[in-house]
UniProtKB/TrEMBL annotation:
It comes from Lophiostoma macrostomum CBS 122681. One of its GO terms (cellular component) is membrane. The keyword Ribosomal protein does not apply. This is Cora-domain-containing protein. Residues 9-20 have a biased composition (Low complexity). It is found in: Membrane.
C-alpha cells in the first residue's frame, strides 16, 4: 500500500468494463467501486476504483472512506477477491454462501503484530429490512401477484487502522433507496477529529437502519389499520389472499427486527470487549467511547420497541383474519338454519299430502280393481260374478311391477349422479 492515490480513469460508472493494458492485451476489470472520503470538513467523491487500485490507495489524511462495492462481482473474480482481502483484511468466513444467505449477523476480528500490538480491527454485519409498497398493494389478490415489496440489505464491512485511526466502510450492493442515505449519514456525521475509534461509524449506519425499520413497521401498521377500519364493509367479502399476503410481510418485518435486536446485542458485547482490552488512551477517546456505547444502547432499545409494535401488528392482523373467518362461518351457519326452516315447512306439507294419499290409496285400489271388466254385477240376480280370465291381470301386473322395481334399483348404475365440483363450474 505504497502507491499514491490515483482513482481509476475509467469514465464509465458500470460495474464491469474492459481495459487494454500497456502490452495491448485486453484484461477484464471487474468490480469497479465508487469511493468517497472525508478529510476534516471536506467530503469528496474520489471516483471509480478497481479492486487493485483500492488495494494500493492510501487515502492519506482521510478519517473516513466510504466504498460502494458489488459483493458478487468481487466474490466471483479471484483477483478482485484477493485484492479486497489484502486491502481490508476480509476474513474467509465472510465469503461463504451461508454468510451471503444469512438474515443477519455481526462478526469482528482483530489483527495484531508479533508484539501483540493492535494493527487493525475489522467488523462485518448484515441487516435486512423488508419494505412493502402499501400504495401498489391491490385491494384483493389472486394466486399471481405483482411484486410490491423490496428487501433492503445492509451488508457492511468496516476496516479500522489502529496506527492512523482511519475508518474504511464498505457498503456492499447498496439498494438504490438506502445507499445514498447511508453514505450521506456517514459523511455528514462522522467527527472531523482524528480521534475516531472502530465503532464510531456503526452508530451512524445503525441510525439509518432504525429509520428504514421504522418505515417498514409503520407501513404494515397502515395496512392493518386500513383493514380494521373497513371491517364492517368487508365482512363477507374479505380477500383472504390479501390478508395473508400482508400477514406474510408482517412476519418478515418481525423476523428482521428480532434478528436486528439480537445482532445489536452481539455488537455491544464486542464493543465492550474491545474497550476492555484496549482502553481509550485519552479523554477525547473516552468521550467518544461512552457516547457510542450509549447510542448503541439507545438504538437497540428503539429496535426492541419497534419489534413490539411489529409483533402487535402481526397479532392484530391474525385477529382480523379470525374475525373475518368467524363472520363468514356465522353467515353460512345462519343461511343453513334458514334453509333448514324452509325444508321443514316443505316436509310438513309433503307429509300432509302423503297422509291423504295413503288414506285414499286402499279404497282407490279396491274400487279400481272391482271396476275392472273381470268383475260383473248383475242387479237382477243381485250377485257378483268374476271372469275365469282374472289370472291375466296378475300375469301382467306382477312382471311389470318387478321390472319397475329392477329398473329403479339399477338406475344409478346406468345413469350415475354427477357430483357438483367447484372446478367444473
Ligand atoms: Zn476482477
Amino acid at each position: 500500500m505504497t502507491a499514491p492515490l490515483q482513482p481509476n480513469s475509467t469514465p464509465s460508472r458500470t460495474s464491469t468494463s474492459t481495459l487494454v493494458s500497456s502490452d495491448g492485451v485486453s484484461t477484464r476489470a471487474c468490480a469497479m467501486c465508487e469511493v468517497w472520503t472525508k478529510t476534516g470538513q471536506n467530503r469528496t467523491f474520489r471516483g471509480l476504483f478497481s479492486a487493485a487500485n483500492l488495494r494500493n490507495a492510501h487515502f492519506d489524511h482521510s478519517q473516513l472512506t466510504v466504498i460502494f462495492a458489488k459483493a458478487d462481482a468481487i466474490r466471483e473474480c479471484g483477483q478482485c477477491r484477493a485484492d479486497f482481502v489484502q486491502a481490508f483484511e476480509i476474513p474467509e468466513v465472510w465469503w461463504t454462501s451461508w454468510s451471503r444467505r444469512s438474515n443477519g449477523y455481526f462478526g469482528s476480528e482483530r489483527n495484531v503484530d508479533q508484539k501483540g500490538d493492535l494493527q487493525s480491527y475489522q467488523t462485518w454485519f448484515r441487516f435486512l429490512v423488508k419494505h412493502v409498497d402499501t400504495k401498489s398493494l391491490p385491494a384483493s389478490l389472486g394466486h399471481n401477484t405483482a411484486k410490491n415489496y423490496a428487501w433492503y440489505k445492509q451488508n457492511i464491512f468496516t476496516h479500522w487502522v489502529a496506527r492512523t485511526r482511519q475508518t474504511f466502510v464498505i457498503i456492499f450492493d447498496p439498494h438504490e433507496a438506502i445507499g445514498s442515505p447511508l453514505k450521506d449519514s456517514m459523511l455528514d456525521s462522522f467527527p472531523e477529529t482524528a480521534a475516531s475509534h472502530p465503532f464510531e461509524a456503526h452508530t451512524y449506519l445503525l441510525q439509518e437502519l432504525v429509520s428504514f425499520q421504522d418505515k417498514a413497521v409503520w407501513s404494515i401498521r397502515d395496512l392493518v389499520r386500513g383493514t380494521e377500519t373497513k371491517r364492517s364493509s368487508y365482512r363477507l367479502k374479505a380477500s383472504y389472499f390479501r390478508l395473508h399476503e400482508v400477514a406474510r410481510h408482517a412476519i418478515h418485518v418481525s423476523e428482521t427486527l428480532s434478528v436486528a435486536v439480537s445482532t445489536l446485542g452481539t455488537m455491544m458485547h464486542e464493543h465492550d470487549y474491545f474497550f476492555r482490552d484496549y482502553p481509550p488512551p485519552d479523554v477525547a477517546s473516552n468521550t467518544s467511547y461512552t457516547r457510542s456505547r450509549a447510542r448503541l444502547s439507545f438504538i437497540r432499545n428503539t429496535l426492541k420497541s419497534l419489534l413490539e409494535r411489529s409483533n402487535s401488528n402481526k397479532d392484530r392482523l391474525a385477529n382480523e383474519i379470525q374475525l373475518s373467518f368467524n363472520n363468514l362461518t356465522l353467515f353460512n351457519s345462519n343461511t343453513s338454519i334458514k334453509i333448514g326452516h324452509a325444508a321443514q315447512i316443505d316436509s310438513a306439507t309433503l307429509k300432509t299430502i302423503a297422509f291423504l294419499t295413503l288414506t285414499f290409496l286402499p279404497a282407490t285400489f279396491v274400487s279400481g280393481m272391482f271396476s275392472m271388466s273381470f268383475f260383473g254385477f248383475s242387479p237382477d240376480e243381485d250377485r257378483w260374478a268374476m271372469s275365469k280370465q282374472f289370472w291375466i291381470y296378475w300375469a301382467i301386473a306382477v312382471p311389470v311391477t318387478l321390472t319397475t322395481l329392477l329398473v329403479w334399483h339399477y338406475w344409478d348404475n346406468f345413469f350415475p349422479v354427477k357430483s357438483v365440483d367447484r372446478d367444473d363450474e
